[in-house]
Design brief:
two-stranded antiparallel ribbon; 7 strands; 48% helix; alpha/beta; globular; 246 residues
């Protein structure tokens, strides 16, 4: 499957699936409880919202030569950690007993302040944990796995307005001054890549209104979905070629 054949249209469909799934979960819970806020909370924790993105990545991997049985999502997605017994990833590629790739798919709608801190700590912690486990030989005989992180953030006033920083003792780094939560996520994912905690990252912004029609935008070309999937497929293609040469 060529990289650019219908990538954009399928990405629009994944965005649409995210918002429609979230809306269905919210309505379903709200109808049961009669509480609108309860429905909103369920939409955050209900799961399956990022399934469209997971399926898109899985399909591209399989279309480029990886057997479907080697791409795990939803089930059997645990790998050992160093600081904890195991960690569930959203998608794993495991072939012949080797860990080839692991990807996290995350989103945030509303509650930008608290959730931003949680997502930041989670992203750094997951990568730090798996690299420590790799260093200690948890995945032998695996070579260094490819790690990816994908984030969809609601584009709304609360995520786009500048956020004040607190500096009671020391100054924050200048790039954080005047940065919105959206910009903070962009900074985070860029640094995670440049520090080699993740091999590639993708960052999408989407409004609640436009998202149900599949609308999104990419605020950073470095964090585009095309570069993200291209990096992953380069690893997958190399694996397929090495098998053919054996």
């Amino acid at each position: 499957m060529p990289l650019n054949s219908d990538l954009e249209s399928k990405l629009h469909e994944a965005v649409k699936h995210f918002w429609k799934t979230r809306r269905k979960q919210s309505r379903k819970q709200g109808a049961k409880s009669g509480a609108r806020d309860a429905g909103a909370r369920t939409a955050v924790t209900g799961g399956h919202q990022m399934d469209g993105f997971v399926a898109l990545v899985r399909d591209y991997l399989c279309a480029n030569g990886l057997p479907k049985m080697e791409v795990f999502c939803g089930r059997s997605v645990e790998v050992p950690g160093w600081y904890r017994p195991e960690k569930q990833w959203d998608l794993l590629v495991i072939s012949n007993g080797e860990l080839l790739a692991g990807i996290e798919f995350k989103s945030q709608v509303g509650s930008f302040g608290n959730n931003y801190n949680n997502r930041t700590e989670e992203a750094i912690g997951s990568a730090t944990d798996i690299w420590a486990a790799y260093r200690e030989g948890a995945f032998k005989p695996s070579a260094r796995p490819w790690l990816g992180y994908m984030m969809l953030l609601e584009e709304a006033p609360g995520s786009m307005h500048p956020v004040e920083v607190r500096e009671p003792h020391f100054e924050v780094f200048p790039e954080f001054r005047g940065a919105s939560y959206g910009k903070r996520y962009e900074i985070l994912l860029t640094k995670l890549m440049r520090e080699r905690l993740y091999d590639s990252a993708c960052f999408l912004l989407s409004t609640a209104k436009g998202g149900v029609k599949g609308e999104y935008r990419e605020p950073s070309s470095e964090l585009s979905f095309e570069k993200f999937i291209g990096s992953l497929l380069a690893r997958a293609t190399a694996i397929v070629k090495s098998r053919k040469s054996e």
